[in-house]
Design a protein that fits this description.
By secondary structure, this protein is an alpha/beta fold. Helix content is about 25%, strand content about 20%. The chain has a domain at about 5-135 and about 160-215: Spore Coat Polysaccharide Biosynthesis Protein SpsA, Chain A, CATH 3.90.550. Strand 7 and strand 8 form a beta hairpin.
């Protein structure tokens, strides 16, 4: 089976670690980026820094740059997200069977397990692999991981979209597709509060075999930049969110103890061991 990947360049945090985590699985990596270094909403983005970090994980020259114009403040940002991904997916799908679509802050903790389940999905006739992401929120000052959890503190999966799809798959919203999907979770029953309790689970992996989404694990400067660039979170009170984010890094135990009192599932957090290396230093207080 020939597997390729695409990634969109614009967020340098964890980009080296992300590509390195699945590099041996793929024959080619298409790096899509805006030619003018702008976000979908028209804000400057560190595209060149992201590409530089990706190249650090490319000793065999698998990267293929795919420039384009993906910035238009007049349009809905996530429509542009979908179109950019589709173009990158179509390009990466040439001479490939399956395409990985991991973002540059997502780290495959068990790449061999991921590949095995791509092969399983392929054998079942599925066209997409929904593989669990653990949503990392913060590295605490004592070096542990705060991540999203279930209300009871159990490990939790999230599914922003399939992490792998057959070449030629059509996307409908960001990474999401209506294609037939093979779904993997962290337990025999659904662990994602945003999915129905009876959602089908075709296979199970351990928490240390998930994909780790380093979503808000950033330096403070990177978080401020993320708040200005993000097309996914417009209208949010970023000043309040940043104050809360910093407080939780300093007070992880109180953060976890307050979980049962929180109504919104984005405030349910748990502590776990730090699961990856410390090369980038992309975290609060580094």
């Amino acid at each position: 089976m020939r597997i390729t990947a695409y990634v969109m360049a614009g967020d340098p945090a964890w980009a080296t670690e992300s590509l390195a985590s699945y590099y041996d699985l793929v024959d080619r990596v298409v790096v899509s980026h805006d030619s003018d270094g702008l976000s979908w909403a028209g804000h400057p983005m560190p595209v060149e820094e992201t590409i530089e970090r990706l190249r650090r994980a490319d000793p065999e020259g698998k990267i293929e740059l795919l420039p384009g114009r993906w910035s238009d403040p007049r349009r809905f940002a996530l429509d542009l997200d979908t179109e950019q991904r589709q173009a990158a997916l179509d390009h990466a799908g040439k001479d490939a069977d399956w395409v990985l679509q991991l973002d540059s802050d997502e780290i495959a903790l068990a790449p061999d397990r991921l590949r095995a389940l791509v092969e399983t999905a392929d054998a079942t006739g599925a066209e997409a692999l929904d593989y669990p992401l653990r949503h990392a929120y913060q590295r605490t000052l004592d070096g542990r991981l705060l991540e999203l959890a279930r209300r009871d503190g159990g490990v939790r999966a999230s599914y922003p979209g399939p992490v792998a799809v057959r070449a030629g798959t059509a996307l409908v919203h960001c990474r999401q597709t209506r294609a037939r999907t093979y779904r993997v979770d962290l337990a025999p029953t659904n662990t994602d509060p945003d999915h129905p309790h009876d959602a089908v689970v075709d296979a199970v992996v351990r928490a240390d075999e998930a994909v780790l989404h380093m979503s808000w694990v950033r330096t403070r400067d990177q978080m401020v930049r993320k708040s200005r660039q993000s097309g996914h979170h417009e209208g949010r009170d970023w000043d309040r969110l940043l104050r809360q984010w910093e407080w939780r890094a300093r007070h992880p135990r109180l953060t976890v103890l307050s979980r049962p009192l929180r109504r919104g599932n984005l405030d349910w957090l748990r502590l776990a061991d730090w699961p990856v290396g410390e090369g980038s230093g992309d975290w609060y207080g580094a």
